[in-house]
UniProtKB/TrEMBL annotation, chain A:
Belongs to the bacterial solute-binding protein 5 family. The keyword RNA-binding does not apply. It holds the Pfam family SBP_bac_5. This is Peptide ABC transporter substrate-binding protein. It comes from Primorskyibacter flagellatus. One of its GO terms (molecular function) is peptide transmembrane transporter activity. It is found in: Periplasm.
TrEMBL record, chain B:
This is Peptide ABC transporter permease. The chain crosses the membrane at residues 12-32, 107-128, 140-165, 205-225, 267-291, 311-332. It comes from the Bacteria. The keyword Ribosomal protein does not apply. It is a multi-pass membrane protein. InterPro entries: BPD_transp_1_N, MetI-like, MetI-like_sf. It is found in: Cell membrane. Pfam families: BPD_transp_1, BPD_transp_1_N. SUPFAM superfamilies: MetI-like (SSF161098). Keywords: Cell membrane, Membrane, Transmembrane, Transmembrane helix, Transport.
Length: 538, 341
C-alpha cells in the first residue's frame, strides 16, 4: 500500500495550492436536495410527524388514498383501488389494489392497513391524534377496524363524521401503510416494531411500498433514497434522491448556483429574489399548510377581555410586513383554515388601525395601554414579526416585552398555560378544514358534560385557557356534516365568528420557496402533499 | 525511593486527577442540563402529544426520579460503557460520536496544520523584523484572522474559491457521486480513500476539506503567529543570542538553530491547545460548510435538551483535553532535557 500521500506535507501542499475541482452538474438520474434536516430522528410514521420525516416518508410509503404526483388535481385511490361509503356515512369499505408489493417483496393486503392503523393508535405517540380525531381509542379500535378478506378493509366510524374529511385525513403521513409482516418480525416487547422502524440504521429494508426506498441515513448529514424499480404506479425517472443536510441558507444558494444541488428548501427571500435572475436557476413559490399566528392567554389579564385581543388584531402591520419581512415567504391570511382548503376564508378585514385599537382598549379599561410579555420563536422570520409588532403596539401605548426562545423552551410553558402571549406557527396535518378548526376553535373541555378541570395540553385552545362552548360544538358539527355545501358554509361561519372572540390572531400563510436548477420539472409540493417520484431533469 | 515506585506514584496521582476531572465534568454538565429551562420530554415526543403519553415518556426517560438518583444512574451507565441513546438522532450516543468525531478530527488536524505552517513562520518573521513594516503587516494579517467573523470568512472563501474561481469543492465532505464509494474504516475520508486506493475520492475529499480547513487554519495561524512572535521576542532578549551573534553566527542560524528550538516547548503547548479547541468542534465553520462534525452535533443536542448526547460529547472533549495535556507533557520531556530529571 502506498501511504506516501498521507504524509502531512503532501496534504499541506495539496491544500495550499488548491485542488483542481471536479465540478459537474449532478448526475442526470440523481436528484440532490439541500435542506435543513437535522431534526430527523425517528422514521416510523406512527411515531413522528415532523415535516422532514413526513416529506421523505411520503415517497417511501403509500397510503390507501392520495394524489398522483404526475397529475395531483384529484384525490384518488393508492393502495385502495376504490372505496365506498355506506348510506349512513358510518362505514367506509376499501377495495385493495391487486398485485402491489412492498419493497421487501411481500404483497400488500388488507392486513397491512389494519396493522398500520392499529399500531398507530396503540403506540399512541403524536401522530395518533389523527386516530383520536376520528373517534378511535385504544379500547374501541378492534370493534371498528376489520379486514374480512385480503382485498377488503373496513373502517367503521365510532362517531358520525363527514366521509370527505375521513378520506382527506387518510392522505396524511400518519396513515402510511407499513409492511405488516416485515415490521412484525422486528417486534420487541409488544412495541409493534416501533423501535426498529424508528431507529433505522444503514442497509436496513424500508417497510413501505412507495416509489423510493431509504438506502442510507446518516443523522444530521445525509439521507439517500433509491428508486423502487417495481413501483406499481410508474417507474421514477430518478434512480436516486439524495437529501443533504446543509444548514446555512447562503451555502444552499451557492450549491444551487453551481449546479451541485438541484433543489434548495431553505434559501432566504432576499437570496430567492437574487437567484431568480441567475443563469440555470429558477425559483418557484408554493403555498404551504403552515399558518403563523399570535396567541393571547385568556386566563391572564388583560387578555381575559376579548376586546383587548381584538385591539391586538388592529396593531399588526399586515401590509408592511407583507412587503418586507414576509415578502415572498408568506401571504396575509387572517383565519385558521389555510387557503386552498375547503371553506377557507381569504378575506382580510384587519389592517393596522391604531385609533380603532385605542378605542377598543379604552372600552376595555386600558386607555393608557399596558405592558405584557410576548414569547417569540428565536428564528427568522418569527423574531422579526415580534419586533415589528412591538413597534406598532407601542403606538397604542402597549409595551410589548419580547422574549425570544427556542421552541423546546416555549412549548412546555405553552402546554402548561403559563405563557401570557406568544408567536408560533401551526401546520395542518391533512387537507381538510377540520385539521385546523379542531385545533383553533375546539376545546374538548368546553363540550357539554366535559370536566372543566381536565387537562388538554395537546389542544391550543386549552393552552390559552379558551373554552368556547358554542364554537366547540359548531366545530364538532361541521366535522360531521355530510353535505359538502353546508359543511363549507359552516367553516366559513366558524372562521368569522372566531374574529370576534378567539385569542388567536392569524397573520400569514407561509409560502415555500423552491430554488431549483432550471432543468428540473415535475416537483410536486404544495398544500396537498409532496413527492419527487415525478421529477425529471431535461 | 526506587524509580519504579516513584513512577507508580506519579501514575496514581495522574490517574486520580483524571478521574476527578471526569467526575467534575459529568457533575457540572449534568446539573446544567437539568436546570436549563428546556424540556427533554417535549423535544422527544413533539409539541402536540396528550398528557398521558407525555407522562409515560417522562417516566420512561427516568426524569421522574430524584436528581441524585438520575445522576447516579447515569454514572453507573457510563461506567458500564453505555452512554445511552440520543433522541435527537435516535441512535446510541457512542455510534453518533464515532460518526461525527472523525469529521471534526479531519478538519481540526488540517486546520491546525495550516495554522502552524502559516503561523509559525509569520511569528518568527514578525519577531525578527520587530517594529518594521513587515511586523506591522503581520499584525494586520493576524488581526484580521482573529477578528473576522468565522461565518463571514467561510462564506467569502466559498464565494471566491468555490463559486467564482472553481479552485475548491463546495460544502460537505464529499461530492454526491462519491458518496458510499469508499468503505468507512477510520471515518477520516481522506485516509479511508487512501486505504482503499481510490485516488479520485481522495482528491475530491481534499478539495472539500481545503476551504473549511483554511478558514479554521487562518484563525489558528493568527493565534499561533502572535504567540510565536511573543515567545521569540522573549528569547531574542536573552544573553545567549548576543553571544551567538558575537561569535559570528549568521542571523539565519541564530534564529533557526538557537532561538526557535528554545521556543519549541511553549509552541507545542500553544499548538496542542489550539488543536484541542478546534476538536471541540467549530460550530460556525461546520455550519457554513455543511460539515457534519461534533460542533453541529453538540449544538443541536443542547437546543434539544438531549442530555445523553451533550454528556457523551462533553466526556469525549474531556478525554481529548486530558490526552492532549498528557501528550504535550510527554513532548516537553523529549524537547526539554531539564524536565527529564
Amino acid at each position: 500500500m502506498n501511504l506516501k500521500f498521507a504524509s502531512p506535507l503532501a496534504i499541506a501542499v495539496a491544500l495550499s495550492t488548491g485542488i483542481p475541482a471536479l465540478h459537474a452538474e449532478t448526475p442526470s438520474d440523481t436528484f440532490v436536495i439541500v435542506r435543513e434536516i437535522s431534526s430527523i430522528a425517528e422514521w416510523d410514521p406512527a411515531v413522528s410527524q415532523i415535516l422532514d420525516v413526513a416529506l421523505i416518508n411520503g415517497d417511501v410509503y403509500d397510503s390507501l388514498v392520495g394524489f398522483d404526483p404526475r397529475n395531483p388535481d384529484t384525490l384518488g385511490g393508492m393502495l385502495a383501488e376504490s372505496w365506498s361509503v355506506s348510506e349512513d356515512g358510518m362505514t367506509i369499505t376499501f377495495k385493495m389494489r391487486e398485485g402491489v408489493t412492498f419493497h421487501s417483496g411481500n404483497p400488500v393486503t388488507s392486513a397491512d392497513p389494519l396493522f398500520s392503523f392499529r399500531r398507530l393508535m396503540l403506540i399512541g405517540r403524536e401522530p395518533s391524534s389523527n386516530m383520536r380525531a376520528l373517534g378511535y381509542s385504544a379500547e374501541n379500535i378492534d370493534d371498528y377496524l376489520s379486514a374480512p378478506d385480503p382485498q377488503t378493509f373496513v373502517m367503521k366510524l365510532p362517531n358520525k363524521l363527514a366521509p370527505t374529511m375521513v378520506i382527506n385525513m387518510l392522505t396524511s403521513s400518519a396513515f402510511s401503510v407499513v409492511d405488516s409482516e416485515l415490521v412484525k418480525s422486528h417486534e420487541v416487547d409488544g412495541d409493534f416494531g416501533a423501535k426498529w422502524l424508528s431507529g433505522r440504521a444503514d442497509g436496513e429494508a424500508s417497510a413501505g411500498s412507495g416509489p423510493f426506498m431509504i438506502d442510507t441515513f446518516r443523522p444530521q448529514s445525509l439521507v439517500m433514497l433509491s428508486a423502487n424499480e417495481d413501483y406499481w404506479r410508474f417507474k421514477p425517472a430518478m434512480k436516486r434522491v439524495i437529501y443533504r443536510h446543509v444548514p446555512e441558507a447562503g451555502t444552499q444558494r451557492l450549491l444551487i448556483e453551481k449546479g451541485d444541488a438541484d433543489l434548495a428548501f431553505n434559501i432566504t427571500a432576499t437570496d430567492a429574489a437574487a437567484m431568480a435572475g441567475a443563469e440555470g436557476v429558477k425559483v418557484e413559490y408554493r403555498p404551504s399548510k403552515k399558518i403563523l399566528y399570535f396567541g393571547f392567554n385568556r386566563m391572564i389579564e388583560p387578555f381575559d377581555d376579548p376586546r383587548v385581543v381584538k385591539a391586538m388584531r388592529y396593531l399588526v402591520d399586515y401590509e408592511g410586513l407583507s412587503n418586507s419581512i414576509m415578502k415572498d415567504i408568506g401571504t396575509v391570511h387572517q383565519t385558521f383554515v389555510p387557503a386552498g382548503f375547503l371553506g377557507a376564508v381569504t378575506e382580510t378585514p384587519f389592517s393596522l388601525a391604531v385609533e380603532k385599537a385605542k378605542a377598543l382598549l379604552a372600552e376595555a379599561g386600558y386607555p393608557d395601554g399596558f405592558e405584557f410579555t410576548f414569547t417569540a420563536y428565536n428564528r427568522k422570520p418569527e423574531m422579526d414579526l415580534a419586533t415589528s409588532f412591538q413597534a406598532t403596539a407601542a403606538q397604542a401605548g402597549v409595551k410589548v416585552d419580547v422574549v425570544n426562545a427556542p421552541v423546546s423552551q416555549t412549548i412546555p410553558l405553552y402546554r402548561d398555560q403559563k405563557l401570557q402571549a406568544l408567536q408560533l406557527s401551526y401546520t395542518a396535518g391533512y387537507l381538510d378544514p377540520n385539521a385546523t378548526a379542531s385545533k383553533f376553535t375546539f376545546n374538548p373541555g368546553a363540550m357539554p358534560g366535559a370536566d372543566r378541570e381536565a387537562k388538554w395540553p395537546s389542544e391550543m385552545t386549552y393552552r390559552l385557557g379558551w373554552y368556547p362552548e358554542d364554537l366547540s360544538e359548531k366545530t364538532a358539527a361541521a366535522a360531521q356534516e355530510l353535505d359538502e355545501t353546508k359543511r363549507t358554509k359552516m367553516y366559513e361561519e366558524l372562521q368569522k365568528a372566531a374574529w370576534e372572540d378567539s385569542p388567536f390572531v392569524f397573520l400569514f400563510q407561509a409560502t415555500q420557496q423552491l430554488a431549483m436548477r432550471d432543468n428540473v420539472e415535475g416537483v410536486f409540493y404544495d398544500t396537498r402533499g409532496s413527492s419527487f417520484a415525478s421529477v425529471t431533469k431535461k | 525511593m526506587t524509580r519504579s515506585t516513584k513512577a507508580g506514584r506519579i501514575a496514581l496521582k495522574q490517574g486520580a486527577t483524571i478521574a476527578a476531572t471526569f467526575l467534575g465534568l459529568v457533575l457540572v454538565t449534568f446539573l446544567i442540563g437539568r436546570v436549563m429551562p428546556l424540556d427533554p420530554v417535549t423535544a422527544a415526543v413533539g409539541p402536540d402529544v396528550s398528557q398521558e403519553i407525555y407522562d409515560a415518556v417522562k417516566e420512561e426517560m427516568g426524569l421522574n426520579k430524584p436528581l441524585l438518583i438520575q445522576l447516579l444512574d447515569y454514572i453507573g451507565q457510563v461506567l458500564r460503557g453505555d452512554f445511552g441513546v440520543s433522541f435527537s438522532t435516535n441512535q446510541p450516543v457512542i455510534r453518533d460520536i464515532a460518526r461525527v468525531f472523525p469529521a471534526t478530527v479531519e478538519l481540526a488536524a488540517a486546520g491546525v496544520l495550516i495554522g502552524t505552517l502559516i503561523g509559525v513562520p509569520l511569528g518568527v518573521l514578525a519577531a525578527v523584523k520587530r517594529g518594521t513594516a513587515i511586523d506591522g503587516a503581520v499584525r494586520v494579517v493576524t488581526l484580521v484572522g482573529h477578528s473576522a467573523p468565522v461565518f463571514w470568512k467561510g462564506l467569502i472563501l466559498l464565494v471566491v474559491f468555490y463559486a467564482a474561481l472553481d479552485w475548491a469543492n463546495g460544502p460537505g465532505r464529499l461530492s454526491v457521486y462519491y458518496e458510499g464509494v469508499v468503505p468507512t474504516r477510520t471515518g477520516l475520508i481522506v485516509i479511508d480513500a487512501i486505504l482503499a486506493r481510490e485516488w479520485d475520492v481522495m482528491r475530491d475529499a481534499l478539495g472539500h476539506l481545503a476551504l473549511p480547513a483554511f478558514s479554521l487554519g487562518y484563525g489558528a495561524a493568527a493565534y499561533i503567529g502572535r504567540m510565536t512572535r511573543s515567545f521569540m521576542l522573549d528569547q531574542l532578549r536573552q544573553e545567549y543570542v548576543s553571544v551567538a551573534r558575537v561569535k559570528g553566527l549568521s542571523e539565519f542560524r541564530v534564529v533557526f538553530t538557537e532561538v526557535l528550538p528554545n521556543c519549541a516547548v511553549q509552541l507545542v503547548t500553544t499548538i496542542a491547545l489550539t488543536f484541542g479547541l478546534l476538536l471541540e468542534g467549530a460550530v460556525l465553520t461546520e455550519t457554513v460548510f455543511a460539515w457534519p462534525g461534533l460542533g453541529q452535533y453538540m449544538t443541536k443536542a443542547m437546543f434539544n435538551a438531549d442530555m445523553n448526547a451533550v454528556l457523551g460529547g462533553t466526556l469525549v472533549i474531556g478525554v481529548i483535553f486530558v490526552a492532549l495535556n498528557l501528550g504535550s507533557d510527554l513532548l516537553y520531556r523529549i524537547l526539554d532535557p531539564r524536565t527529564r530529571t
